[in-house]
Amino acid sequence: MCGIIGYSGPLEAKRLLIEGLAGLEYRGYDSAGIAFFDTVSQVRLVKQVGKVAALKETCEKLQGSSHCGIGHTRWATHGGVTNANAHPHQAGRITLIHNGIIENYHQLTEEFGLQDKLVSQTDSEVAAHVLDHFYKDDPFTAIQELVRRSEGSYAFCILFADRPGEVYAIRKTSPLVAAYTHSGALIASDLTALIPYTHSYFVVPEGELVRLTPYKVQTYRLDDLSKTQPETMTVNWNMDAAMKNGFPHFMLKEIHEQPEAMKNTVLPRLSKGLPDLSEDGIPDALFLSCSQVHIVACGTAMHAGMVARTIMEPLLRIPVTVTIASEFRYQQPLIDEDTLVIVISQSGETVDTIAAMGLAKAYGSKTLAIVNVKGSTIARESQYVLYTHAGPEIAVASTKAYSVQLAALYLITCRMALVRGRYTNEQAVTFLQEFLDVIPAMEDMIRRKDEMKAVVSHIINSPDAFFIGRGLDYAFSLEGALKLKEISYIHSEAYAAGELKHGTIALISDKVPVIAIATQDDIFAKSMSNVREVKARGAFVILVTKEGKDVSADLADVHITIPAVQDIFTVFPIAVVLQLIAYYASLGKGLDVDQPRNLAKSVTVE
Ligand code: F6R
User: Fold this and answer.
1) Of 251, 377, 398, 603, which is best to mutate to test ligand 1, by the most ligand atoms within 8 angstroms of its C-beta?
2) Is 601 a catalytic residue?
3) Considering the entire predicted model, what is its pTM?
4) Minimal-distance CA residue to ligand 1 atom 3
5) Do 518 and 532 meet the contact criterion of CB atoms below 8 Å apart?
């Protein structure tokens, strides 16, 4: 959350910072600001409520050039959305931007007597004052003191008024990446801001100080200030991947990218028709030694886990549990050395998932992370990593990341079944052949997007919508409901269809949209009975089944069919259907599809 960028170099800093912030806006977008050294080496500050585009307009009117500065796009944690609470914050000779939460800011406010000095309600301004208090011409010492006193998570980029051309940074938990390029020295909360200038970067190690000058990015150990040399990494996508490329929204583009992302994630891991994770450094022993699997994640990633649980448990015949990471981290989970803990995260920076993984390690469990962003915290800290290859996901609502997380989970399931003797080679080959059929099925649903577009006129004027399904169909429904509510603001909930009559059916009345998913052959008749129950109470039923199903005309107001892939794989075409319904609902209501209110892409605060 919160996008951060810092720059020192020959280019016009204001423009570079604004362009960087536009790329980082998906991390938070309630206000934005930049600070820079102007032509007479004074720090100037521009910040305002609203999107980066508004800040850009203001900055275009500014005279003079600049070659060093910092920029921030905010997702509010402490204090409302106001100009005063927008970053950067200033105190004395300090100007800083912050991502994270300083948990002891009340205590610091008292300790340093800041009550009457603060002009914002933010923890970040408190940090600026503490830093200013300790700044006696040596930035390193002042930062050491700030770090010593701060509890919580942070990524700070700091300008010291008497040090033009220099940007200082430090982080704990919250991510920062940096690079020295032909265009100068750059630091940012994520790669999208660096990619236009370089493909080589390093992850700022925790507990190391960074100094950017026009000629260098240097890191130092925080304790003795000795120089360090973080490992250089390379990113394998280019700026094109992070552009809309003719699509009106990132979300639609990313929905379209799913078949390709699936191929990139699955095909390199097939060998002689069997799943092979050896190139990823994942040994079979990991799958053999475990007596249970515990999946931990948040939001959409957790929903991928829910689907995986439903296929893994009956196939592997071992307990598979799914827990929301923010709950898991404060529980005393029943895990041990024989537990395989699978953490799932697109960004690899979700703070609750990071903490949950830390807890799993403390219990001695083995950790396997399914992550999209290379070099992210979860990827670095997990014992084993299976990267998904979706490329950058920019829309706040996750789409292609969900599909490839599922793909990774299906590969793991198949490999586990094989090494645990639950599958013969032939069965594993068949599983994967049938699995690959989902790619054309997804393409088919993408081609048929107008069917989903047509359906939303029956949804967007309703305050509520319900998703129902049984078994796997219920697991898919959870994601469908999340997608719809987060970008259309329609209150939508998913229910296990058989559970409806135990309370929820009271909410079904005339024309309430019910999206009923019924793709599982063995429980199809049962699902139809539940559809009949809501129909009898006046619901507007949008029924999704595999093609070839005999559905009586009075049962569904709209009937969408997906290609007849095997039951355990229907999630892939269904995901496309549900994503498109959410997309067109948001569009139909004239909302900001890619940046829905109150949300941000990567959740780096608790
Ligand atoms: C919803 C969505 C979120 C994320 C969740 C976890 O569309 O994107 O629910 O899935 O915040 O994020 P990652 O996968 O980055 O850990």
Assistant:
1) 398
2) yes
3) 0.91
4) 299
5) no
Residue 27: pLDDT band (50, 70, 90) is confident
AA letter at 430: T
The Cα angle at residue 481 between residues 477 and 484, in degrees rounded to 5:
135
Question: Pick from 504, 559, 505, 557: which is nearest to 534 by CA?
Answer: 505
Residue 433: predicted pLDDT: 97
Alpha carbon distance 187, 3 (integer Å): 11
Cα–Cα distance, 84 to 33 (Å, whole number): 11
Question: Six-digit token pair at 154?
Answer: 């942070």
- Ligand 1 geometric centre to CA of 299 (Å): 5
**Interval 572-585: pLDDT, tens:** 999 999 999 999 99
Of the listed 2, 59, 298, 414, which one is catalytic? 2
Give the contacts of 39 (CB within 8 A, at least 6 positions apart).
Answer: 64, 65, 66
Band of the pLDDT at 434, cuts 50, 70, 90?
very high
| Per-residue pLDDT, 243 | 86
301 C-alpha to ligand 1 centroid (Å): 6
Decide: 488 in ligand 1 pocket, CB within 6 A. no
Cα angle vertex 550, ends 494, 516, to 5°?
10
Whats the size of the chain, residue-wise?
606
User: Which among 581, 564, 586 is positioned nearest to 466, based on CA atoms?
Assistant: 581
Q: Which of ligand 1's atoms lies nearest the C-alpha of 396?
A: 8
Q: Are 255 and 399 in contact (CB under 8 A)?
A: yes
Three-state DSSP class for residue 591: coil
